[in-house]
Write a structure and sequence with these properties.
Layout: H1 13-29, H2 34-49, H3 53-78, E1 84-88, E2 91-94, H4 95-121, H5 124-133, H6 138-167, H7 176-207, H8 226-248
Antiparallel strand pairs: 1-2
Helix pairs in contact: 1-4, 1-8, 2-4, 3-4, 5-6, 6-7
């Protein structure tokens, strides 16, 4: 349910979606890379306001930062470009390579940072309620929400099975080779348990009249406030002005 004590978490989900869409489109179409890298700082400020700073930084540096760093290194050092600055064996550093690396990684950083912030300050059940309020087809809503929850559910399931395997004497910690060996025995239980959970989920949905054409009653009613409407229009207008100045000027 929407947090009533925090100004960011209290916002209606679609208000935050407008902000995510605006920043994503600006990151894709704006030239250069300063704005795109700056989105990380914007996300950090919003994360501080939303009281999720630790989670925001942890997820960013464990995922987006590593991907961007890997792409930057490969694109800069190992992909051949014109205007070579430094060359040593298979390593080539050029102005073109640096510019392309900045452009590619900045967009990844911008989009990844704002998405991480959004999912840290917006609960899945609030997203579901907003979709139902908007009149979305409940089957489509279920598919989207299931996709959002897939990775956390699989991570939790894998951790549970790893603990069970460890209690049976299977080595799950150590060097890379040991981890690879322990991963293979877990594949079977993970797949079979996932299939079993899908069957249980289907039975649960049918027991709750999921196939019924009657509009369901929301257990977590959420409503847009006047602040949400004002902020939505401010974001849209600011985006249109920024997009025009950044792309057509």
């Amino acid at each position: 349910m929407i947090n009533q004590t925090n100004i960011i978490k209290r916002l209606y989900p679609t208000t935050k979606v407008w902000l995510v869409i605006a920043i994503t489109l600006c990151s894709v179409f704006f030239s250069g890379y300063l704005f795109q890298y700056g989105v990380f700082v914007i996300g950090l400020i919003l994360a501080i306001l939303g009281q999720v700073t630790g989670k925001y930084l942890s997820l960013f540096f464990k995922s987006i930062f590593l991907v961007a760093l890997f792409i930057f290194i490969i694109q800069t050092l190992f992909v051949y470009h014109d205007h070579i600055i430094l060359s040593w064996g298979i390593i080539h550093v050029s102005n073109t390579g640096l510019q392309m690396s900045y452009t590619m990684t900045s967009k990844i950083v911008a989009i990844g940072a704002i998405l991480i912030w959004f999912f840290q300050v917006t609960e899945v059940k609030d997203i579901a309620a907003a979709m139902q309020n908007a009149g979305w087809n409940k089957k489509l809503t279920f598919v989207i929400l299931s996709t959002m929850q897939l990775i956390p559910q699989m991570s939790a399931l894998t951790a549970t099975i790893a603990d069970a395997q460890k209690s049976r004497g299977v080595e799950t910690e150590g060097n890379l080779l040991t981890r690879i060996k322990s991963f293979v025995p877990m594949l079977g239980p993970v797949v079979l348990t996932s299939i079993e959970q899908n069957e249980e989920r289907v039975l649960t949905l049918e027991s709750r009249a999921f196939s019924s054409k009657v509009r369901p009653t929301l257990m977590l009613p959420i409503k847009k406030t006047g602040m949400d409407k004002i902020l939505s229009w401010v974001i849209i207008i600011a985006f249109l002005i920024s997009f025009y100045l950044g792309v057509f000027k």
